[in-house]
């Protein structure tokens, strides 16, 4: 965007980006794109050869910029979209770092207890004819499973992961999993706000870029990253194709919040839908930032419950049999 705005030709701009690219694979892709453009291909057609790097929304916006002669403006909007997504991703990564550290610490501590401490207690308890409490038996069972059947544990985990991954790849599995994610406590509302922000921002940006509304809805359905929302957007696309507008299917879905519905209603009446959708996206960005900044506070009850259960099991498994041995010695 910066080089094009400065008035440099497309090939010169791409060559400059290639020289600055640190990733060798990305540099190779840019070199191939340059060769394609030199051979008569357009920038959008050259990008379309690499869907894992340039998604359908990116390619279609570039294509709209080429057709309308507003490539610089389109590149600026793509830069804003990319920076916005990266900003949200970094904030979420920073917010979940602490909970992950807590969970990993508990898992490591539990692993050390099961593999190092429990075997010594087992040898001690075996010398006395005293019954072991249930928590200790659970820890001993976990110890035997991890030590003697670790290969089976790994096979079961890998098998469950592969089955889950293949199930999620199916249409029904993807729909069920995405619906479950929207219903999760704390993270479900956060995910919904992220999807709404992305839907509003991409739709508004594409409308400003001059792309037809039916094509926009088709692109956005693939860009929201959720099968449940994608199905609703397909229903909206069908209503728009019949000339009925976007409002009715949004209300019937009961998934779109009232703010988005109101923005669409006013936007369709005033012809300022793109502007209002961008405003709605800004609102949801504020909600997302608030949730992320308070994420630790929101998930703290779940962390405390998880830590309490783990510590209780470890404490009962270690100290209860010691009390039994002390009673045995007294007698």
Largest sheet: none
The CA-CA distance between the termini, in Å, is 84 Å
Q: Tell me, rounded to a whole number, the average pLDDT.
A: 83
Low-confidence stretches: none
Q: How many alpha or pi helices?
A: 16
Strand content: under 5%
Q: Could you give the order of the helices and strands?
A: HHHHHHHHHHHHHHHH
Measured as a percent range, the helix fraction is over 70%
Structural class: mainly alpha
Shape verdict: elongated
Radius of gyration: 28 Å
Number of strands: 0
Quick structural gist:
With 331 residues, the protein is an all-alpha fold. Helix content is 84%, strand content 0%.
Describe this entry's structure for a reader:
The structure is a single chain. With 331 residues, the protein is mostly helical. The protein is 84% helix and 0% strand. The chain is built from 16 helices and no strands. It has helices at residues 2-5, 10-20, 24-38, 43-48, 56-68, 71-126, 134-148, 150-169, 171-183, 187-208, 213-223, 227-241, 247-253, 258-270, 273-293, 295-330. The longest helix is centred in the N-terminal third of the chain and has 56 residues, at 71-126. It is elongated and about 95 Å long. It starts with a helix and ends with a helix. The mean pLDDT is 83.
Present the secondary structure layout.
Layout: H1 2-5, H2 10-20, H3 24-38, H4 43-48, H5 56-68, H6 71-126, H7 134-148, H8 150-169, H9 171-183, H10 187-208, H11 213-223, H12 227-241, H13 247-253, H14 258-270, H15 273-293, H16 295-330
Helix pairs in contact: 2-3, 5-6, 6-7, 6-15, 6-16, 7-16, 8-9, 9-10, 10-11, 10-15, 11-12, 12-13, 14-15
């Amino acid at each position: 965007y910066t080089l094009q705005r400065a008035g440099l030709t497309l090939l010169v701009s791409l060559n400059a980006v290639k020289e600055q690219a640190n990733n060798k694979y990305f540099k190779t892709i840019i070199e191939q794109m340059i060769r394609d453009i030199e051979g008569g291909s357009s920038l959008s057609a050259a990008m379309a050869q690499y869907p894992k790097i340039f998604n359908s929304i990116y390619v279609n916006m570039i294509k709209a910029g080429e057709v309308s002669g507003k490539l610089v403006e389109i590149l600026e909007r793509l830069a804003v979209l990319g920076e916005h997504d990266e900003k949200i991703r970094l904030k979420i990564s920073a917010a979940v770092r602490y909970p992950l550290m807590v969970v990993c610490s508990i898992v490591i501590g539990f692993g050390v207890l099961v593999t190092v401490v429990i075997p010594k207690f087992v040898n001690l308890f075996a010398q006395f004819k005293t019954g072991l409490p249930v928590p200790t038996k659970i820890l001993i069972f976990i110890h035997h499973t991890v030590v003697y059947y670790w290969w089976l544990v790994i096979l079961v985990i890998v098998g469950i992961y592969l089955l889950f991954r293949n199930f999620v790849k199916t249409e029904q599995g993807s729909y069920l999993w995405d619906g479950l994610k929207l219903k999760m406590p704390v993270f479900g509302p956060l995910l919904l706000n992220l999807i709404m922000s992305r839907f509003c921002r991409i739709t508004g940006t594409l409308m400003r870029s001059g792309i037809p509304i039916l094509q926009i809805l088709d692109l956005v359905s693939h860009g929201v990253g959720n099968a449940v929302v994608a199905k609703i957007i397909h229903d909206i696309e069908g209503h728009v194709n019949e000339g009925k507008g976007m409002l009715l299917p949004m209300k019937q879905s009961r998934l779109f919040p009232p703010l988005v519905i109101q923005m669409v209603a006013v936007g369709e009446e005033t012809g300022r839908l793109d502007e209002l959708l961008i405003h709605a996206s800004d609102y949801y960005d504020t909600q997302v930032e608030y949730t992320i900044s308070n994420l630790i506070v929101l998930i703290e009850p779940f962390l405390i419950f998880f830590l309490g259960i783990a510590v209780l099991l470890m404490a009962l498994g270690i100290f209860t049999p010691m009390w039994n041995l002390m009673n045995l010695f007294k007698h």
